[in-house]
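Reader question, answered in our methods column.
A reader sent in the components of a multi-part assembly and asked whether the whole thing could be modeled at once rather than chain by chain. We filled in our standard form and ran it. Here is what they sent:
COMPLEX SIZE: two components
ENTRIES:
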Amino acid sequence: MLEVIIFYISALIAIGGAVMMIAQRNPVASVLYLILSLVAQAVLYIQLEALFVGALLIIVYAGAILVLFLFVIMLLNLRGEKFGYDQGKVGVATKLIFSLVLIFELAAVVHTVSRSTNLARTSEHLNPGFGSVPPVAELLYTKYLLPFELTSILLLVAIIGAVLMARRDRADKEKEMT
Amino acid sequence: MDIRSAAIDFGLLTPHLVIAVAAMAILLLGNMVRNRGLMTVLSVGAMAVGMIYGVMQWAAPQSGFYGMVAIDNFSVFFSIIFISTGIMAILMSRDYLVAKNIDSHEYNVLIMFATVGMMLMASSTDLLVIFLGLEIMSVPLYVMAGMARRDNFSGESGIKYFIIGAFASGFLVYGIALIYGATGTTDLRRILADFTFLKMQSEMLLYSGAIMVLAAFSFKVAVVPFHMWVPDVYEGAPTPVTGYFSVGPKAAGFAALFRIFVFGFGQFSDLTMVFWILAVLTMTVGNILAIFQNNIKRMLAYSSIAHAGYVMVALTTGGQGAVSSAVYYLAAYMFFNLGAFAIITMIDCRTGSNNQIDGIKGLSGRHPYLASVLTLFMFALAGFPPTAGFMGKFFIFSEAIKNGYVWLTVIAILNSLISVYYYLRVVVAAFFMKSDKDFLPVTYRPAMFIVLLITVAGTLVLGVIPQIWVELARLSMFSIF
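And here is the structure of the entire assembly that came back:
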């Protein structure tokens, strides 16, 4: 019973935080609501016995990445948006259509999951040690070794790209010298 | 899971690793050695070595990394297409980069990394690795689109491509998550094996996931209605980069589409209707909008959308025969489309060029050979015999008719007829229209000459003696491990 109550509270906070995040005009407030939403999601992961993922969500997302966001926003000195995203009737219609499609999809997902026995597993079926660090590490260095290594190539490429875009080129330097 | 396919064997990925490691080495070396020509030779050499290793994997299907990598004839053929595209893109960019003062050795490195990403997309049977391959391919492309930072259009092109690309990646990841939710795996071979059971159990989820993945790749290969970004990005990007965009990523996107929808979801017959509609829309919109373009890069952008439509016909047909026809078509398209872009790049290298079709008036007076070669490529794009373009279309359409898609073929042929109009506009401008001003002469160095030689040879050989190449394409099939 307690489990269910905790689930509903954190689920409400997660959804509420996400909605508040996109409803804000001030980017700093948006980031703070996003952190709130992520912390609530971490609680959900921990309830699913995925302790490691829950911890990572707080440390990496709420901790590192969003703090970086805050720094960027403060360094760039971004002010709140002056205008909302109002694009007239066509814009509203498009938004409605896409929202309906996504709601339909969500309904389909919920429908499928509630019908499928395969997915409605309880914690009794989990392997011992599920969700702790060793099983994750073992998978990462055996079955998922290739994706793991490829991610590092992807990061390298992204760094090269970022440096290339931000670097002053020769013409800039020459201009400074003269 | 058998032991052989579980093995972690980096030897399987030799061609990928050769190119990736060489790219890193050249990245470091290029900061010390100022000789850009030498760097280009090294890049091309490394890609050629990768290609040789790739060819050596022909006809020896293997699987590894717990079934995440599948090296079969399909992946080998596509790897050869990607590496050739990369080599030709590097060679044809030289003069342009120097002329526009945006020369840097990282350009070659980016092309090499993009090639690695494309090869991973073609040689994987796991959605996770296909996604990573797509990202490794896309990130260098965003940067390449915005290479000419002094040019506002290039910056706009890079930003647009980046935003649309990130959006498409979001679709892809969402789709993969839904498929994982429905099946409990990202391994296409397991989805193929248990398909009937999985479909019965969670059809809606599988369907939503498949549509999301299809939408994501439709962005990448520019299928209508996911094509809006193409003309702007193609127009703004540096001209040789546009040529690369219109061939490399497109072929890679189709390789992944075939691997996912003909192999993994091969029994998902509900999707055929979706493919049919997409194919018809893509061909028709691409060809009709191309008629109204006066900018030659925009025109070829719409033409590349139309060509994506012809390959979608093969995807609709499904089955091994249709995949072979699409493989052949993409190889042929690489030659004549890159060739056309090589010539446009040469014309664009001159000062004051604006890429308008009017700008090539009087080309035949100054450069008769170049004008003839341009005509050959335009004929190939339109699909005239005896060029590779004709054989490619013939192969795709005959497979479609064989499988009973008569109406689709009729629409495709009508579209080819429309396309003749705008391709011939270029030929007419080059040969029969007089310019008020003198045509500024075009200069080029050996690198460009090599590209023209390869593309002309490819266009003619694949068109005149197609038998051996058709046979190779027929052998380029998925292996089921």
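What stands out: The interface with chain B takes residues 105, 108-109, 111-113, 115-116, 118-119, 142-147, 150-151, 153-154, 156-158, 160-161, 164-165, 169-171 of chain A (CB under 8 Å). Chain A has a mean pLDDT of 81.
Send us your own complexes using the same form.
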